[in-house]
């Protein structure tokens, strides 16, 4: 993806927020890549995907972030559909507003480490509050290398949560 396309993405995103009548002070577009694996007809296929990192800055971010980031994820989903259609290309899309996601990821990683330490010390399991699949993935990933604890998702739908138990 070239600079011309990145500029068009920035323009499209700015126009999106303008039509929502949300005053955005800055739109930063970054580009990276990620590997995606999926099952093909006969074996696992791995492909390189473009990842568009979009960081939006605005004065009143709460309305676009929503409760537990739900509005942010829905806006991200909408923008991804708009950009995929406009560019006739499928790519990953990561939207962050005023660094909310970055702070949330750090918070979840620290929470995971602290709770895992407690579980390892007390030898009693800890049940976390229900959270989104995105948040659960962060916890699982953060604790995947630990040899003293294991994580497991339990529950259904909105009640899906993580249990951390001693190994």
What can you tell me about this protein's structure?
With 167 residues, this protein is an alpha+beta fold. The chain folds into 2 domains: 3-98, K homology (KH) domain (GMP Synthetase, Chain A, domain 3, 2-Layer Sandwich), CATH 3.30.300; 103-166, Ribosomal Protein S8, Chain: A, domain 1, CATH 3.30.1370.50. The protein is built from 5 helices and 6 strands. The chain has helices spanning 3-19, 62-65, 70-87, 100-122, 133-143, and strands at residues 24-39, 44-58, 92-97, 126-127, 149-154, 161-166. Strands 1-2-3 form a 3-stranded mixed β-sheet, sandwiched between helices. The chain has a 3-stranded antiparallel β-sheet with strand order 4-6-5. Helix 4 crosses helix 5 (133-143).
């Amino acid at each position: 993806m070239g600079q011309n396309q990145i500029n068009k993405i920035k323009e499209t995103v700015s126009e999106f927020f303008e039509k929502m009548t949300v005053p955005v002070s800055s739109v930063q577009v970054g580009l990276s890549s990620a590997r995606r694996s999926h099952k093909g007809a006969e074996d696992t296929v791995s492909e390189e995907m473009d990842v568009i990192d979009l960081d939006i800055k605005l004065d009143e971010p709460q309305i676009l972030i929503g409760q537990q980031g739900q509005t942010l994820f829905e806006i991200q989903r909408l923008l991804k559909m708009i950009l995929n259609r406009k560019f006739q290309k499928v790519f990953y899309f990561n939207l962050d507003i005023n660094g909310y996601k970055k702070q949330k990821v750090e918070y979840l990683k620290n929470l995971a480490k602290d709770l895992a330490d407690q579980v390892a010390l007390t030898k009693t399991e800890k049940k976390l509050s229900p959270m989104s699949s995105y948040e659960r993935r962060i916890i699982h990933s953060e604790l995947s290398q630990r040899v003293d604890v294991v994580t497991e998702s339990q529950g259904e739908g909105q009640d899906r949560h993580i249990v951390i138990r001693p190994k």
